[in-house]
């Protein structure tokens, strides 16, 4: 699959839609205009890639809705050269957006199949600078810490303590935390010495953040899903 003029046109429309919904940071809009979202979804969903909706990916997970990606990325306030950790690689799209904003990106996924697919896609698209790991995101990435920014893209039961510990002083973390059984509120956490400041954002719906890793391959997964 390629990135054609038609795709670029659809992307422009999507970005205009996001602007109308309140997304305004130029760096975020520029990245969303640049990254070919249709190359992060299954071929069968290609025609839906530039609709503002979440789509199913492997392992019963989802690629977040573009508005959600833009909202989280704006709250994160990423600047060029920052070291950013993402928990929940999924399709790899959010990591690609952070890469397009010139961040130094580390991303962690618990499902082997998603980790493998996203890693391949990063190389295919020339985003090989993105470092991806098949690990449990609850533990963060101690060897690479501290980070300027941490973004969690799955619903956390509570603020993951290990992640707060891996933030730099004045660093920011954006994490959707369970509000009810079916929805999360977005939290923006800023580290100030021993303290953390917290601001609550809008409500969203994410797939759950789960402990441990899954090592199944594509074929084994199909079996499991039957
Ligand atoms: N950022 C992704 C969104 C994927 S959905 C994208 O742009 O496509 C959230 C992802 O978080 C899922 O792939 C899920 O498997 C992953 N996840 C859930 N719990 C996790 C954990 N403890 N560690 C790492 N990844 C996790």
Structure description:
By secondary structure, the chain is α/β, with parallel strands linked by helices. The protein has a domain at 66-204: 3-Layer(aba) Sandwich (Rossmann fold). It is built from seven helices and nine strands. The strands form two sheets. It has a seven-stranded mixed β-sheet. α5 links the parallel β4 (104-109) and β5. The longest helix has 16 residues, at 5-20. It is globular and about 50 Å long. The two termini are 29 Å apart. S-adenosyl-L-homocysteine (SAH) binds next to β2, α4 and β4.
Secondary structure: elements and pairs:
Elements lengths: L4 H16 L5 H9 L20 E3 L3 E3 L2 H11 L6 E5 L5 H8 L3 E6 L2 H13 L6 E4 L12 E6 L8 H5 L1 E12 L5 E9 L2 E10 L13 H8 L1
Parallel strand pairs: 3-4, 3-6, 4-5, 6-7
Antiparallel strand pairs: 1-2, 7-8, 8-9
Bound molecules: S-adenosyl-L-homocysteine (SAH).
The site of S-adenosyl-L-homocysteine (SAH) has 23 residues, from strand 2, helix 4 and strand 4.
